Amino acid sequence: MSEENTAQGPLPVVPFLKLPEGADPYIEGQKCGACGSIFLGERPVCSKCGERGQLAATKLANQGKLYVYSIVHRSFPGIEVPYISAIVDLDGGGTLKGNLIGVDPDPEKIQFGMPVEVVYKDALGRKDRDGNSYISYFFQPAA
Amino acid sequence: MTDAYVVGIDMIKFGRFPDRTVPDLGAEAALLALDDCGLKIQDMEALYCGNLGQAGGMVGQRILQEIGQTGIPVVNTANACATGATAFREGWMSIKAGVYDVVLAVGVEQMGKGLLGGAGGGTGIPKEGLLGSGTMPAVFAEAGQEHASKYGTTFEQFAKVSVKNHHHSTLNPKAMYQIETPLETVMNAEMIAYPNTKLMCSVNVDGSAAAVICSEKKARELGLMGRAVKVSASVLTSDPWQERDLVMPDVNSCTRLASAKAFEMAGIGASDVNLVELHDCFATAEILHYENLGLCADGEAGKMIDSGDSALGGRCPVNVSGGLLSKGHPLGATGIANIYEVSTHLRGEAGKRQVEGAKVGMTHVIGLGSACAIHVLEKVTA
């Protein structure tokens, strides 16, 4: 629980969420130079085509379309429900899973294929054992 | 290459046995399977044991410590929910390869209650409910929603799977539950992860099942061909690359790959199959597998459940045991328990739930992550 740690500012919830100093957060993909597949997180080998050393970082779009979702009413103890678990295809490639916010957790209000945008906010107040806070990504209906 | 036959097979009635041990549950099924064909542990040349919860715990050897330490080789397998089927398949391979003539396969699991799965992991903060959900009901809800998005499949159609399988289980004394659940009851049950309500989630139970697998020569020698069931295909696949793999475990492409190989190996088509025990871990999953296994055309699974084609008495009855939804889903035992179910029908011994005239049956399991195992079983026509 050191104060030095909390003073360093929020950390990214996953390594592929980038928080560049003085610029907007973004999701970083790794694109295979041989077959064009996009992955999340750094890796040495492409699992689609098997090429080695061809993966390069690429900035993924903050716009996408809702592919599928589930409205979660029962989760593990301490996890606030309901929430919408969503899988989003980003424009230009890459697929992300996260919470869909800014819409009622009601199937009548959610359409497959609806345009959404990726937004970056505090990770629901969750902190690690050292007291660090985190920045997460969320989806919300596109304005 | 010899043909391989199931000559002895059985399962315990699934339930909750917190006071028993995993080897004890496995030993019970092993003895039942041996008794089913009148053989002894001394007749077995190898043991293939599937268990997930104690994957590092030498469960197969501990079973032999309960029923007979004969010094035979033991292979312990873990392959998520395909664990039991993987153990069975290892035994089948040893017979096909001509290494052994008669082997024992056991699947066993002791489960707690509650949710399986959970999103994310590693360092930092919990990701569940932050980066979506990794709980199994939600993961399989999302898989079902892909079908809903493509073909307009409804919450009601998914729920009907559960109505059907719970109905089937009322005819199966070895199922965990024997309770009718009408459509309103299923749809109005506690919502776990839309569109899966509590009654659309498989039941976590303890259970075990075991099979004695035999070469043709040995089965004839022992006079066991009368009730033998031919294993005409055994296939195991992993998940081929798919574009959404990283965030959406894929149960479809590994099943499609496995079913195509299984039909080829057995030399039959989907229309030849008289009954199927498939991996209905959630009601949404069963709908997907009608199409993945070729039981109906793509986009027709909603119609298949509506028409009653997959119910007992229908064109191709699915999960007449009650399925994972009501018979229960002890992870490591499931793959052998569904081989027991199909074998029992092919032997004409399934009582009130007998699929009349069943000659060919298929079993299917999915281990998320992913593994798919399919077996095609055939009645022996002597």
CATH architecture title of chain B: 3-Layer(aba) Sandwich
Helix content of chain B: 25-40%
Number of domains of chain B: 1
Q: Numbering strands along the chain, what is their spatial order in the largest sheet of chain A?
A: 1-10-9-6-7-8
Number of strands of chain B: 11
CATH class (first level) name of chain B: Alpha Beta
Secondary-structure element string of chain A: HEEEEEEEEEE
Low-confidence stretches of chain B: none
Shape of chain A: globular
Quote the distance from N terminus to C terminus of chain B.
Answer: 19 Å
Number of helical stretches of at least 4 residues of chain B: 12
Number of helices of chain A: 1
Please give the structural blueprint.
The complex is a heterodimer of chains A (143) and B (382).
Chain A: H1 3-7, E1 11-12, E2 17-18, E3 26-32, E4 38-40, E5 55-59, E6 63-72, E7 83-90, E8 95-100, E9 115-127, E10 133-141
Parallel strand pairs in A: 1-10
Antiparallel strand pairs in A: 2-3, 3-4, 3-5, 6-7, 6-9, 7-8, 9-10
Chain B: E1 4-11, H1 22-37, E2 47-50, H2 59-67, E3 74-77, H3 83-96, E4 102-109, H4 136-151, H5 155-169, H6 183-188, E5 191-194, E6 196-197, E7 207-215, H7 216-221, E8 229-238, H8 253-266, E9 275-277, H9 283-292, H10 301-307, H11 323-326, H12 331-346, E10 360-367, E11 371-379
Parallel strand pairs in B: 2-3, 2-4, 9-10
Antiparallel strand pairs in B: 1-7, 1-8, 4-7, 5-6, 8-11, 10-11
Task: Explain this structure.
The complex is a heterodimer of chains A (143) and B (382). Chain A contains one helix and ten strands, in the order αββββββββββ. Chain A is 3% helix and 45% strand. Chain A is mainly beta. The radius of gyration of chain A is 17 Å and the shape is globular. In chain A, the strands form two sheets. Chain A has a six-stranded mixed β-sheet, with no helix packed on it. Chain A has one domain (10-141). Chain A has one helix at residues 3-7, and strands at residues 11-12, 17-18, 26-32, 38-40, 55-59, 63-72, 83-90, 95-100, 115-127, 133-141. Chain B has one domain (4-113, 204-377): Peroxisomal Thiolase, Chain A, domain 1 (3-Layer(aba) Sandwich). Chain B is built from twelve helices and eleven strands. Chain B has a nine-stranded mixed β-sheet, sandwiched between helices. In chain B, strand 2 (47-50), helix 2 and strand 3 (74-77) form a beta-alpha-beta unit. In chain B, helix 1 crosses helix 2 (59-67), helix 5 packs across helix 9 and helix 9 packs across helix 10 (301-307). The radius of gyration of chain B is 20 Å and the shape is globular. Chain A binds chain B through residues 11, 13-14, 37, 39-40, 47-48, 67-76, 79-81, 83, 85-87, 89, 95-99, 107, 112-113, 123-124, 126-128, 134, 136-137, and chain B through 115, 118-120, 123-133, 135, 137-138, 141-143, 145-146, 148-149, 155, 190-196, 241, 243-248.
